[in-house]
Predict the 3D structure of the following.
Amino acid sequence: MILRELLKGINVLRTEGSLDIDIKEIFYDSRQVTPGSLFFCIEGYKADGHDFAPMAVEKGAVAVLLQKDVKLPDGITKVFVEDTRKSMGYISSAFYGNPTENLILFGVTGTNGKTTTTYMIKSILEQSGKKTGLIGTITNMIGDRKIPAERTTPESPDLQKLFHEMLQEKADAAVMEVSSHSLELSRVVGCIFEVGIFTNLTQDHLDFHGTLDNYREAKAKLFDQSRIAVINVDDESGRMILDRLESHAFTYGIYKPADIFARDIEITAEGVSFNLHILGGKIGVNLRIPGIFSVYNALAAASACYAAGVSLDDIQAGLESIRGVPGRFELLDTGTDYSVILDYAHTPDGLENILKTARDLTQGRIVTLFGCGGDRDSAKRPLMGEVTGKYSDFCIVTSDNPRSEDPMKIINDILPGLKKTGCPYIVIEDRRQAIEYALKNAKKNDVIILAGKGHETYQQIKGKTIHFDEKEIVAEILGREKI
């Protein structure tokens, strides 16, 4: 595509060199550059893409997008813009033919519930006959085909390429998790959302956003580019976002007045049933995922699909066909007289949700194994200790993904909150040893909750990523071939 065409609508400050050159590919990673490409110089937190522009040119880039000048060989086109990240989003969309103009796109943002809500939306849309792509934390999908996911929301060139592939494979719709980082870093610039969904907001990512207000403001950006908004009005931040929305909005909740709400909720170990009321209509729903948080996720998914014109019958069938989501309150088949539940919960609110649900279903003790991620919001660590101690009978404090931090420092940040509750606990830094301790000391009817890792199959320790699949580990400890 001709560079001049790619730059239409972009606020270009100045240029050097020809704009009438053919751009064969686009890249933000100099290591991937191929001949005839455009290279985006992105200022990151650990590295500055401007420093890698010469390498990109050596590998064949014929043009670069910059915020500041870089010495490059003659004949290389320079395009100067105010914000290379934002411009990268628009250019990426144009390069791949503005794919979201031809997809019914759903975006889900919020602290908790994003992954499950996207899976529910995908199930409902497919029930209604729409081939649907999915982009999120666990995996990316086009129909049934899985594509590995490196981050919750990909960088804009990768994201637009995925949308382009979805259209090539005849997808009608797509649903994606939209992280606060991606909104703040302009990764979804250039996307046209039919429906934007807000699930909730609790403390997380303050290492990046600084304050809860900034975190909320980042989430709210989704609705600036959504035709329809779907908002959880039981959540205070949801009500704050709703008050200033200019787009059309559907509201959902259980306790506050809302357009879509749940009544007659019954939670069992097998799942949850309720009546879902939608603007005068009503359907009975039987979910195979227990917990009040499952009701909220179902309300979010139902509201979004209803807003997009899906029938109540398809909404009901789509929700009831969900068998669960990997690493989200996932009951492992251990063949023991106690239960082991795998969950991704890594925020105070997320832990509280799963522990409350487990408490309602447990005849014996709740034993919770958890840690906190390194190089992330340290202020939530004692809060996680406190909420875990409050709802557990015994805690095993261990590592999560310590990354570059000392695991024992992270654990010591957790302990003051845990000690406030008086809940008995043990510290076992090595996570595999901690899991082995939990299983070997389990009693009949106990519920062992392995919190924090969920679907992840790795640990990040001192700059290295090592294989760490908790399903495999539980199977090995119990002497089973698989779980």
Q: What stands out?
A: The mean pLDDT is 94. The longest strand covers residues 260-267. The chain has three domains: 3-85, 99-320, 330-478.
